[in-house]
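Hey,
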Amino acid sequence: MIDKKGLKKSASPGGKNGKSQPKDGKKEVTGEVKKSLGSLFGKVSGKDQLELEIDRLNSHLVEMEIDLKTMEIQLSKKEILARDAVAARQEAESRLNQELVKMQTLNHELETIRAEAPEKFEFRGIETLSPSAMEAYFSKLSSFRTPGDDLLTVYLPPGTALSDVLSEKIISYLDEETRVLLERLNPETGLVLFYDIHRMISEAIVPSIPIMTSAWYFKDHFETGALEGNLEAECRILILLLHAGESFVGFAPDRLAFDAEELVRSSVKEKHTKGGFSQRRFERLREEDIAHHLAKVMETVNKILEENAPVDCVIMSGESQLLREVEKRLPFDIEVIEKSMDLKLEKISGDEVMRNVLSCRRYLF
């Protein structure tokens, strides 16, 4: 470019763009250089992070190895316990098998004794004692005394065995005959054993009212108080004597007399002894007669119960078929006692029924 004087102007110090260069001559750091430096520092930083991660993993590995050792120790202890448990179980099973063999042997011996008992052992006597006879019995029994504690009294409720009440040592005082005969007895009302270890007295009383509590005494006299109290206790009783065609229903508020009594009669065919169709037809008619008689009995029972509730217990005797049916039809849950009595109802009074029902059985060993 030429100015007015015709002189050529020089280029400006800033170059093409008019920008001036730094006076120290150093070049500016370009973007590429910055990028390269950043990459270098980034690599250095990533290495540190990897080393930290490796240290963390190594530390975790050590922890896992410690946990593994701990678990191995615990497993070893459990294996020892398991072996001990297996050994204990085997020992227990061995002892159990020994006890089972022993029990089987004893049961076999007991069955052998029972099989031989009908021929070998018999009761010396069996008798029925009325309430008044029981008073005299208690008077005589209580007068018996010994210098030492030689007299054993045992109260056994229904379904209770000697071994449920007495220790083996006490049972060993009883002779074999007494033990076997006691096993043979299984009364609905339980029993009371009176036994002198010198065998001057060896007998049992089966009461009319159930024994409720088991007990035993070794004294210089027989303990009769609980039995006397049992037989004198207040008890509201319904008495049923059941036979096809003729049954007795009575209610007694005490043990003295009936407040209500009734003899129920129906026409029931006798049993048929011939065979064939006629027998089957006859038996069917007989069953119908018995069902009719049973309905009449239950009508009387329900009427007496309605008029005299509550009732403490029912004492029944008679034919098993009628006993089962009446027991199922009783209108409430009540204690039922079955007794074996052979009474001719057409020839017996209410007082005689009461005396027989409340009588006790005496068994002499």
